[in-house]
Design a protein that fits this description.
The chain has about 375 residues and is of the alpha/beta class. The chain contains 13 helices and 13 strands. The structure holds 4'-deoxy-4'-aminopyridoxal-5'-phosphate. 4'-deoxy-4'-aminopyridoxal-5'-phosphate binds next to helix 5.
Length: about 375
Amino acid sequence: MARRRVLDMVQPHLLGLDAYEAVDPPEALAARAGIPESEVVKLNANENPYGPSPKVAKALAEMRRIHLYPDPAQVAAREAVGRYVGLSQEHVVVGNGSDEIIDLLFRSLLAPGEAIVNAVPTFGMYAFSAQVCGGRTLPVERDARFALNVKATVDACNRPDVKAVIFASPNNPSGNATAPQDILRLLEADCLVIVDEAYVEFDARSVASLVPQHPNLVVLRTLSKWAGLAGLRVGYGLMAPELADVLMRAKPPYNISQAAETALLASLADVDTLNERAGRIIAERARLAGLLAGVPGVNPLPSEANFILARMPQGRGKVVYEGLARRGVFVRYYARGVLADYLRVSVGTPEQTDRLMAALAEAMED
Ligand code: PMP
């Protein structure tokens, strides 16, 4: 018998870790609302309501090498991503979701006690991942409209204990993008600048083309949103070849499954279909914003992503969220801090928007 308790062997910084608040699958939501799964309107995770390209299902059905390990060097995947973004493949690292690229970056960058700068409020994974890696986050508040506070962010980046700044553009959950000229200012700071473009295909401007000229720029992308592959887990990072090389060596060798790789290749061979669907989502975003703005007391923010952050009447965020959930409509609610009065709603199909708006009209009366 070992004398030490199991938890004495776990790293202290992980003992108090709160699990990431991830979304529940549709069957759990259906059980919560007491309705059949087919009636759930799931607008809480910015998933693509149109699903993947039809070429994905066909390519998955035709996979012939499931008994063999996938390619650890990601040759075909890196080449296809490189062609899609217009960069050579040595800039590309493919991950098990962009979440894995975030984790690999932080593991590669952060020694105990070192920090990343985090432009809050934002995607919770950045602070979570930094904590798991034994690092710290230095939060810099966004302004009242959730725009990046460039001066304060640059100042934070120049601190000697800071290795990187990470921010999403468009930002989750506020939907606003950071202007390329602001990103250029950040690139002058003495740290790595990680721009998470998970939602860029919904009409925002990308800085991916700047990667070759700026060795301290990293751009993250995902196939979860635009390509409808959230369930298969595939994303990628674009960065200086020498950093890509570190990540390629440090990653688990078979980090993208053959299914993920196959789906990535099929998606990037069907960009027109995916862009056409993104166009439908962009049009529906405008319609949804108009409908939300028409509800007394509800204030939707402009968005360049596939979701809208909307302010509810003061103190009513939780009640409206719960009222929607009881009616089978699931959105994202933030219990704490500046977002307590806000709900984030993913842009779904026109039918889902109609269900949401009907439920919202009722929930506002609860
Ligand atoms: N970045 C942002 C800003 C996100 O909102 C998300 C998903 N919610 C991700 C990254 C994670 O994407 P993936 O599914 O590729 O891990």
